[in-house]
Specification:
With 579 residues, the protein is α/β, with parallel strands linked by helices. The chain has a domain of 209 residues: Rossmann fold (3-Layer(aba) Sandwich). It has 23 helices and 19 strands. Strands 2-1-3-4-5-6-7 form a 7-stranded mixed sheet, with helices on both faces. A 6-stranded parallel sheet has the order 8-11-12-13-14-17. The longest helix is centred in the last third of the chain and has 25 residues. It binds cobalamin and iron/sulfur cluster. Cobalamin (B12) binds next to helix 1, strand 3, strand 4, helix 5 and helix 7.
Length: 579
């Protein structure tokens, strides 16, 4: 089998998570991943398919997923067998600071002569620190790297100089070089996510587990379709905001995909998956005309559409949505029940407006409305967090039909990190934050701490780290029972969640006690002894992750469509090779 030209590796957030005793806490309860964040960036597929179209072979290996799947899986053995022109590793989400750098070290140790490339948002923010590390040779910056990556692959293949490759930070004997961040495309037409690439690569490398986006995807194959790069809003803790993009990723203004391309993506997904399609980014961000053009191009959705709102939508939006996707679902992040906290976070609408919008959506057939709240926000106190739980109950009371709630509230902490590059990270005092870690190295070390309290990189003027943790558990306990009362959870599930929260709380206390022991060796021994209990408290701490899922039929993957997609990719590849 031909060696791939580029291998893209996705690390677990903590490389040795199978051995380390770490109480991760509810840091990933409201995303599909486990706490080691095994999901790789969706940009892996767009980079891979762009290079493939230009005759470079790319292999994605989700090491995190493979390691989760099997205790015996040895990432070093996999990497040792590979000999690409470069290894690419995402340090996109900062929670991967430890794992991504450990994988980089492993690649360097096993293949000292093969360049190690880092990319993603966090790599962009920290490129100057990263390039100083011996395990990192190259950093490709920016929110779009497909074309610079192609130029880099050509330069590596032909031994050309690296000076002219946009967005690249690199080093040679003379030291580090930072090429201009000049590639920031406004037109996203060329970067469609080629879902066929993934299926084809399963066949080519005979490796299904290595490309699966997250544990459990085969049972719940949710797929995303992307509306834009960047964002028009600035939420104060967000590292993907307009402020951050402008200041650190070179993007002056968000760029939007052609609504026809977006509609095509939704149809393509339905060819191989019976799972829901999550439209990333509010469809109305680029104006109502954008949403209208999308609905028109879509015609009728073959999949269940999940749409995201950045602010409450008017009734007319749901009317149009219901015509193309009658069983649509919606999600909105209200962050807090308190208008002042929401405003301090950077969202400028009232709870009253949100409720009016929810009422309209449900009236027009919305199958489920998910509302997300967060802990660790500016101006948010312990009492305010508990007030949010009461508000969740109010939502369930108001939006039930025939005893069945049609709204699903979620409450989780802003964790583990305040995003680098966000307004609050850049100017913590102004927003009432106090930072504990700033550099990559500080975050890398923090990730090895025994509990999520010590991993958290912040506390606020209104809540200490202890209070953030305690309010999370207390609110989790209360919301769990509220959900049971309203029939969203059956008694055994609610009991199990409560048991996990109580166990996590006890363990937190035990870990704090151990941390107060001065003798380092004894501390390590005691922490290691806690691992079996810690592992059982690590998944779905404050809510059961399965609550996120929409009900699905027995058939999850549309196999005939998947095979057709693979065959058409293979014939395109043969055609390209012949011409
Ligand atoms: C969609 C999204 C998600 C989706 C993930 C979809 C996916 N698989 O990628 C969901 C909702 C699951 C999610 C979860 C999380 N997210 Co998120 N997410 C976003 C969002 C809104 C858009 C990102 C996006 O789709 N970009 C478009 C795609 C096509 O590009 P891309 O994947 O970024 O890849 C391009 C570049 O980044 C770069 N690149 C990326 N990796 C690599 C690697 C190499 C080697 C190279 C060369 C280049 C490169 O090139 C790619 C191609 O152009 C951003 C905010 C924003 N406005 O950007 C936040 C954002 C990226 N997420 C963030 C965070 C914190 C998280 C979570 C950690 C939150 C949590 N605690 O649960 C989790 C982690 C999930 C995991 N790994 O398991 C932060 C990251 C801040 C930071 N620097 O750490 C952001 C900036 C804002 C936010 N707070 O939401 N997220
Ligand atoms: S959190 Fe706010 S700033 Fe960040 S992507 Fe969402 S809407 Fe945009």
């Amino acid at each position: 089998m031909r060696q791939p030209d580029l291998v893209l590796l996705h690390a677990p957030s903590v490389f040795d998570f199978r051995r380390e005793s770490i109480l991760y806490g509810p840091i990933s309860d409201v995303v599909p991943s486990m706490p080691i964040f095994e999901m790789y960036p969706v940009g892996f597929t767009s980079m891979a398919s762009y290079l493939e179209k230009n005759n470079y072979q790319v292999r994605i290996i989700n090491l995190a997923h493979r390691m989760l799947q099997s205790d015996r899986y040895d990432p070093a053995a996999t990497i040792a067998k590979l000999r690409p022109r470069a290894f690419g590793i995402d340090l996109h989400w900062l929670p991967h600071a430890q794992g991504a750098l450990a994988v980089a070290q492993l690649c360097k140790k096993l293949h000292p002569d093969i360049p190690v490339l880092l990319g993603g948002f966090s790599s962009t923010y920290y490129h100057e620190e990263l390039i100083e590390r011996p395990e990192v040779d190259l950093v490709l910056r920016g929110d779009s790297t497909e074309d610079p990556l192609l130029q880099l692959m050509r330069a590596l293949e032909k031994g050309l100089p690296l000076h002219d490759i946009p967005n690249l930070t690199w080093k040679d004997d003379a030291g580090a070089h930072v090429n201009p961040l000049s590639y920031v495309p406004k037109d996203l037409g060329a970067f469609a996510i080629d879902y066929g690439y993934v299926m084809h690569s399963v066949v080519r490398y005979r490796d299904l587990m290595g490309v699966i986006p997250f544990l459990g995807w085969m049972d719940y194959p949710i797929t995303t379709a992307l509306t834009c790069k960047g964002c028009l809003n600035t939420c104060n803790t967000c590292g993907g905001s307009a402020f951050t993009s402008r200041r650190f990723y070179g993007r002056e203004r968000a760029a939007f995909r052609d609504p026809k391309d977006l509609a095509r993506d939704v149809h393509r997904i339905a060819e191989f998956s019976h799972g829901p399609v999550f439209i990333l980014g509010d469809l109305r961000q680029a104006g109502d005309e954008y949403a209208d053009a999308f609905f028109q191009a879509l015609g009728k959705a073959q999949s269940r559409l999940m749409v995201e709102l950045f602010e409450p939508a008017p009734r007319s939006f749901y009317e149009k949505l219901a015509r193309v996707a009658p069983d649509f679902t919606v999600e909105i992040s209200m962050e807090s029940h308190d208008d002042n906290v929401r405003r301090a976070f950077g969202r400028h609408y009232t709870a009253e407006a949100a409720e009016a919008s929810i009422a309209d959506a449900l009236d027009l057939g919305c199958a489920r409305f998910d509302v997300f709240f967060m802990i660790g926000l500016p101006e948010q106190t312990f009492e305010s967090v508990l007030g949010t739980v009461d508000y969740c109950e109010h939502l369930l009371e108001r939006f039930s039909r025939g005893g069945t709630p049609r709204v699903l509230p979620f409450l989780s902490p802003l964790a583990p990190f305040l995003d680098p590059g966000s307004p609050a990270f850049e100017d913590p005092e102004r927003y009432g934050y106090r930072l504990f870690h700033r550099t990559v190295e500080e975050h890398r070390q923090a990730l090895l701490s025994p509990s999520w309290k010590y991993v958290l990189n912040y506390e606020t003027r209104w809540m200490s780290r202890d209070e953030i943790v305690e309010s999370t558990y207390e609110a989790g306990l209360r919301l769990n029972r509220v959900k049971q009362r309203y029939g969203l959870l059956d008694a055994p599930t609610a009991d199990a969640v409560e048991e996990r929260i109580l166990r996590a709380r006890r363990l937190m206390q035990q870990i704090d006690d151990v941390m107060s022991i001065p003798d380092e060796r004894r501390r390590q021994l005691l922490l290691a002894a806690l691992k079996p209990q810690v592992d059982t408290a690590n998944v779905s701490t404050v809510c059961d992750k399965r609550e996120l899922n929409l009900p699905m039929g027995l058939l999850k993957i549309h196999w005939p469509g998947a095979v057709r997609t693979v065959l058409s990719r293979m014939s395109a590849e043969i055609r390209r090779a012949v011409t």
